[in-house]
Specification:
20% helix, alpha+beta, five-stranded antiparallel β-sheet
Length: 131
């Protein structure tokens, strides 16, 4: 299904209510990342007050639909690691809120400072995967 060299980024309709929700696409409200390490799924789930990182109790790579069943996921993107620039700072100056998008960009090593919303991240990852 998915190789070990991929993260799966999920985009959800449902998110915690926040004042900035009125400014973002109603179908792309939240994002999180999952990684299959060969034995189990690891989830990086950004929250408003903290980042939840946990190992999920699923022992098969094909259990991904079970994991995402209650999250109102509208789309998934695979992210290849050959796009990550590890030789420069990801963001030398942080001038945006530490949102779910910024946290997932940090996990993936994405340097696109102009990507601010879950929908923009979705479009960026789709373009990244098409080259």
């Amino acid at each position: 299904m998915y190789s070990k060299s991929y993260y799966i980024v999920a985009f959800c309709k449902r998110a915690a209510p926040a004042w900035w929700s009125r400014f973002i696409d109603k179908n792309f409200r939240h994002t999180l990342a999952l990684k299959w390490n060969g034995k189990y799924w690891i989830m990086v789930h950004p929250r408003a007050a903290y980042t939840q990182i946990k190992t999920l109790p699923y022992s098969k790579e094909s259990d991904l639909p079970k994991i995402l069943a209650n999250m109102e996921v509208i789309s998934l993107c695979k992210v290849k690691f050959n796009h990550i620039d590890t030789y420069r700072w990801r963001v030398p100056v942080m001038i945006v809120p530490w949102s779910c998008v910024e946290q997932i960009k940090a996990v993936l090593g994405i340097r696109a400072w102009w990507v601010l919303t879950p929908r923009q991240l979705y479009k960026y990852l789709r373009r990244l995967n098409n080259d």
